[in-house]
Design a protein that fits this description.
By secondary structure, the chain is an alpha/beta fold. It contains 20 helices and 18 strands. It folds into 4 domains: about 220 residues, Rossmann fold (3-Layer(aba) Sandwich), CATH 3.40.50; about 90 residues, Rossmann fold (3-Layer(aba) Sandwich), CATH 3.40.50.1100; about 80 residues, Alpha-Beta Plaits, CATH 3.30.70; about 90 residues, Biosynthetic Threonine Deaminase, domain 3. The strands form 4 sheets. It has a 6-stranded mixed β-sheet with strand order 1-2-10-7-8-9, sandwiched between helices. The chain has a 4-stranded parallel β-sheet with strand order 5-4-3-6, sandwiched between helices. It has a 4-stranded antiparallel β-sheet with strand order 12-13-11-14. The N and C termini lie far apart (about 60 Å).
Length: about 500
């Protein structure tokens, strides 16, 4: 199999439109991690993503009859732009079906590259179904974003470039994994020529389909996929890509959204480029790998797969990047409600910068504060801060990893429930970021329960983080369970969450 793909990669026609992207040393990461960290700059492709390689290699090899019928794809991301440019270069009609919720900048980008955009449905599944209708009714040729041998071969040219550009020893190549087209292509080439080089897949914890497949030893469909790293938000690894990855990917590392945000900042510090969450996955994976292995002086390559990030998502990324790096700690601290308490607390913090401070008068004796503090990169810096506070008899709770605290409580400090609010239950939801999501919630809720609290803040993601308080009288728990099941949105019961008890109850 590897020899077949090796031939396909060596003969792949990608450079009519794609460029050989540079392989740069990342100086700050290199110094910090004590390893040579190289970044493969696929963000510098004409469509700011590696996807152009596979799309063009597939389209250029279509028969004349297939070309005459035109090409179609369902995509709201990088594949759409890559296919649009490929079709334009070859003079082929292209139709891209996108959900109506697709950000306007992506729609404009695809149209600017000559494709006709059809906006259909509120989710990807709706767009995909319509694209298949065009295939059936108009005979258009569907171009798969990853699960196709020619697409895999096109992406595999990145592996070819890496081995050519880095002439010295290569210890490991880190590849972001969604459907697996890039990972399969790179692994096929690298393992065919340099089997001693590790090829390590990196997935988001919210969409780790390859990791799940490797555990089960077969392809599985994830029941739920988070879409912060939308470029790798795939519920099932491809069939063709799985046949390569299962035997030739050395391991899979998974990274949280917080870790991805930290990696985006790392990339920016080294390159002054803002990559998309999926593009930073490989860097996040390298950081976890080095920490786990304790390796030094190795040549580690990260593929920066793309830079198509929505501008409004940058707010969320910058907000959690320091937390993801472990350089910001979020604390709930109880201090005396008396003059001079704040000054004394700040004196104890010393020269550590306070990034956030939330407080509202609530009790004559004690004040509950929500505070963010920057700590140094040194091992144990977080624990040292906590010990210093506790040694001065401050009741302190580390809530850095509390999802509810990070995304809701920090914006709500200062409002305790009045005595009249009884039987309150607190739930955290992820609403689809599309028109009608809230209305659907309210209609299914009906008049069964009173809403006592509601908080939503747009983070530029494809789903909304929502905190809801419901008054649930005794005897109505079963009705509540039915509502939650019928709603179909991901949810978490946060009634016993400590930060809720401290700041809002």
């Amino acid at each position: 199999m590897l020899n077949e793909y090796l031939k396909k990669i060596l003969s792949a026609r990608v450079y009519d439109v794609a460029v050989e992207t540079p392989l740069h040393i990342a100086p700050f990461l290199t110094q910090r991690l004590n390893n040579q960290i190289w970044v493969k700059r696929e963000d510098q492709q004409p469509v700011y993503s590696f996807k152009i390689r596979g799309a063009y290699n597939k389209v250029v090899q279509l028969t004349e009859e297939e070309k005459a019928c035109g090409v179609v794809a369902a995509s709201a991301g990088n594949h759409a732009q890559g296919l649009a440019l490929a079709a334009k270069e070859l003079g082929i009609k292209a139709v891209i079906v996108m959900p109506r919720t697709t950000p306007d900048i992506k729609v404009k980008s695809v149209r600017a590259r000559g494709a006709r955009v059809v906006l259909h449905g509120d989710a990807f599944d709706d767009a995909f179904a319509y694209s298949q209708k065009l295939v059936e009714e108009k005979g258009m040729t569907y171009i798969h974003p990853y699960d196709d041998p020619e697409v895999i071969a096109g992406q595999g040219t990145i592996g070819m470039e890496i081995l050519r550009q880095l002439r010295g020893p290569v210890d490991a190549v880190f590849v972001p994994v969604g459907g697996g087209g890039l990972a399969a292509g790179v692994a096929a080439y690298v393992k065919a020529l340099r089997p001693e080089v590790k090829v390590i897949g990196v997935e988001s914890t919210e969409s780790a389909s390859l990791a799940a497949a490797l555990d089960a030893r077969k392809r599985v469909i994830l029941p739920q996929v988070g879409i912060f790293a939308d470029g790798v938000a795939v519920a099932q690894i491809g069939k063709n890509t799985w046949e390569i990855c299962k035997d030739h990917i050395d391991e899979v590392i998974t990274c949280t959204p917080d870790e991805i945000c930290a990696a985006i900042k790392d990339v920016f510090d080294d390159t002054r480029a803002v990559c998309e969450p999926a593009g930073a996955l490989s860097v996040a994976g390298i950081k976890k790998y080095v920490e786990r292995e304790g390796c030094e002086n190795q040549n580690l390559v990260a593929i920066l797969s793309g830079a198509n990030v929505n501008f409004d998502r940058l707010r969320y990324i910058s907000e959690v990047a320091e937390i993801g790096e472990g350089r910001e700690v979020i604390l709930a601290v109880t201090i005396p409600e008396q003059a001079g308490s704040f000054q004394k607390f700040c004196s104890l913090i010393g020269k550590r910068p306070i990034t956030e401070f939330n407080y509202r008068y609530g009790d004559d004796d004690r004040a509950q504060i929500y505070v963010g503090i920057k700590v140094g990169p040194e091992v144990g810096a977080r624990e040292q801060l906590l010990e210093e506070l506790r040694s001065e008899n401050y009741p302190v709770l580390d809530i850095t990893d509390d999802e509810m605290a990070k995304y809701h409580i920090r914006h709500m400090v200062g409002g305790h429930a009045p005595a009249s609010v009884t039987d309150e239950r607190i739930y955290r939801f992820e609403f689809p970021e599309r028109p009608g999501a809230l209305l659907n919630f309210l209609r299914k809720l009906g008049k069964s329960f009173n809403i006592s609290l509601f908080h939503y803040r747009n983070h530029g993601a494809a789903y909304g983080r929502v905190l809801v308080g419901l008054q649930v009288p005794e005897g109505k728990n079963e009705k509540l369970d039915t509502f939650l099941q019928e709603l179909g949105y991901p949810w978490w019961d946060e009634t016993d969450n400590t930060t809720y008890q401290l700041f809002l109850r």
